[in-house]
């Protein structure tokens, strides 16, 4: 069976990391797996291309410079006609737009789309009309959480019979999760063993709620002078967030690292991971934190309560509630043994419920059913 995935790539973040794991898992099951990257030539994604090449997955780089770029459609159609895959599997909006149309023009029998986030732009009335027409070309729409399933059905108007839920999967890091790794990571970032490091990982955009965490951290720092805030990631809101940190008097105890490849390797330096998102399609950073046995504090919104069991594998607080977030952080700082227990339970849940094998097997089963149906 030949499967050709299509995705617009701008770096290696949540959806791209998922795609790498999924493709490697599918290839390990002796499928002929290929990938078409939609890439803006002005911003090449060499790091992603190198990562996928290391997995020996045949990859094509298709240029796309504008939201409407008919050359992209033409090149994808030619690629599909040449490679003749059994299934086209698209990820993210641009791949849906060009990949699904090109698949039908090329006579590909089965097409699937995966939804990775409940993006605000999908509520736009004009977008909703266009999206519904495009989604008629997909045989199935894969979603990565039950919350996203509800969003796709209610907001996008996709019939429930067309939706398949397959959560993300993640393998825990192979490194020892012990004290030596923690101290080494802290030393790399300049933290001492006495400092209490609160980490947030992700794009610096409104969705992620970094501004909420900064406001909560102001109260935390007054109560816990050894507390430090580590903000790993980059994005359009970075300057505004740096200004906010300065205005709150937190500039000396807040570290903005900017974009870092394989950022999760910095997680062992943290005492906890905070995910104060306003909405989330899944929240892959939660699985990454579980892999390092770290306690998680997250918003009780979207998909996050599906991953984190409150007071069992982490703590859930109302979204945008500064006081509740500060209280939860303080609770874990004051109770390190409880925090450690939450981290251990999270690791066990990752192994049981969110393995890569589980994700790959569910995807394989979907492929097989669709090919046999046709």
Question: Can you tell me about this structure?
Answer:
The structure is a single chain. The chain has helices at 14-28, 46-53, 70-83, 93-105, 125-135, 146-154, 179-189, 210-223, 238-247, 284-291, 304-307, 322-334, 336-353, 356-373; strands at residues 2-8, 32-39, 58-63, 87-91, 110-115, 140-143, 163-165, 196-201, 227-232, 254-258, 272-275, 296-299, 315-317. The chain is an alpha/beta fold. It folds into 2 domains: 2-169 and 355-373, Glycogen Phosphorylase B (Rossmann fold, 3-Layer(aba) Sandwich); 179-353, Glycogen Phosphorylase B (Rossmann fold, 3-Layer(aba) Sandwich), CATH 3.40.50.2000. The strands form 2 sheets. It has a 7-stranded parallel β-sheet, with helices on both faces. Strands 10-9-8-11-12-13 form a 6-stranded parallel β-sheet, with helices on both faces. Strand 5 (110-115), helix 5 (125-135) and strand 6 (140-143) form a beta-alpha-beta unit. Helix 8 (210-223) packs across helix 12 (322-334). The longest helix has 18 residues, at 336-353. The relative contact order is 0.12.
Give the ordered list of helices and strands.
EHEHEHEHEHEHEHEHEHEEHEHEHHH
C-alpha termini separation: 13 Å
Please give the number of β-strands: 13
Give the domain tally. 2
CATH fold-level name of the largest domain: Rossmann fold
CATH top level of the largest domain is: Alpha Beta
What is the overall silhouette?
globular
Arithmetic mean of pLDDT: 92
Percent range of helical residues:
40-55%
Strand content: 15-25%
Question: Could you describe the largest sheet, including whether it forms a barrel?
Answer: 7 strands, parallel
């Amino acid at each position: 069976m030949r499967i050709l995935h299509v995705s617009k790539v701008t770096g290696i973040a949540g959806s791209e990391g998922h795609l790498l794991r999924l493709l490697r898992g599918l290839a390990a099951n002796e499928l002929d797996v290929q990938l078409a990257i939609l890439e803006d030539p002005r911003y090449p994604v060499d790091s992603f291309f190198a990562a996928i090449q290391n997995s020996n997955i045949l990859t094509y780089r298709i240029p796309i410079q504008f939201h409407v770029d008919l050359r992209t459609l033409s090149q994808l159609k030619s690629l599909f006609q040449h490679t003749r895959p059994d299934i086209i599997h698209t990820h993210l909006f641009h791949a849906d737009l060009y990949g699904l149309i090109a698949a039908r023009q090329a006579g590909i029998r089965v097409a699937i789309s995966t939804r990775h986030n409940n993006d605000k732009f999908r509520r736009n009335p004009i977008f909703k009309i266009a999206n519904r027409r495009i989604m008629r070309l997909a045989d199935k729409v894969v979603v990565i959480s039950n919350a996203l399933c509800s969003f796709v059905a209610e907001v996008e108007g996709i019939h429930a019979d067309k939706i398949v839920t397959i959560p993300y999967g993640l393998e825990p890091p192979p490194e020892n999760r012990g004290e030596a790794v923690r101290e080494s990571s802290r030393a790399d970032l300049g933290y001492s063993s006495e400092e209490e490091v609160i980490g947030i990982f992700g794009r610096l955009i409104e969705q992620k709620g970094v501004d909420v965490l900064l406001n909560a951290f102001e109260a935390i720092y007054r109560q816990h002078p050894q507390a430090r805030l580590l903000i790993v990631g980059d994005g359009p809101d970075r300057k505004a967030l740096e200004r906010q940190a300065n205005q709150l008097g937190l500039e000396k105890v807040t570290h903005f690292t900017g974009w870092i490849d394989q950022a999760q390797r910095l997680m062992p330096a943290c005492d906890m991971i905070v995910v104060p998102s306003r909405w989330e399609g899944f929240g892959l950073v939660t699985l990454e934190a579980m892999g390092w046995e770290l306690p998680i504090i997250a918003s009780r919104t979207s998909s996050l309560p599906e991953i984190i069991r409150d007071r069992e594998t982490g703590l859930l607080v109302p979204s945008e509630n500064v006081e509740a977030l500060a209280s939860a952080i303080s609770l874990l700082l004051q109770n390190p043994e409880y925090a450690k227990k939450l981290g251990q339970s999270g690791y066990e849940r990752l192994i049981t419920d969110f393995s890569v094998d589980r994700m790959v097997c569910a995807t394989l089963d979907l492929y097989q059913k669709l090919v046999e149906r046709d």
